[in-house]
Design brief:
The chain has about 100 residues and is an alpha+beta fold. It has two helices and three strands.
Length: about 100
């Protein structure tokens, strides 16, 4: 899976995340985008890792492939847990065009 160059690399698609020399926190960011929910890294793992995570794009149709949650556990030994916590949020309550000088 390693690319021919010596640097970080990721290929993220619906149904797979393949990374070379990437931090675990990056995996959390990719999962956050896919799940459209905040995902935080609480593994306390440091360093760079290679990932090759594959799951069913359509769990109700593709029964041969695991769900994302099952794939994380079986393929990477990771699990997602629902917890409550604070999330930094930016709220824009007013917008107007700049005035002419």
């Amino acid at each position: 899976m390693a690319p021919p160059w010596n640097r970080r690399w990721c290929n993220v698609n619906a149904g797979s995340i393949q990374c070379f020399a990437e931090e675990i926190s990056s995996m959390a960011e990719y999962l956050s985008g896919m799940l459209q929910a905040p995902v935080g890294d609480q593994t306390n793992l440091t360093g760079n890792y290679d990932f090759d995570l594959r799951w069913a794009r359509h769990p109700n149709v593709d029964t041969a492939s695991p769900s994302l949650f099952t794939a994380l556990k079986e393929q990477l030994g990771l699990r997602l847990e629902t917890t409550k916590g604070t999330v930094e949020t930016i709220v824009i309550d007013h917008v107007e065009r700049p005035s002419a000088n």
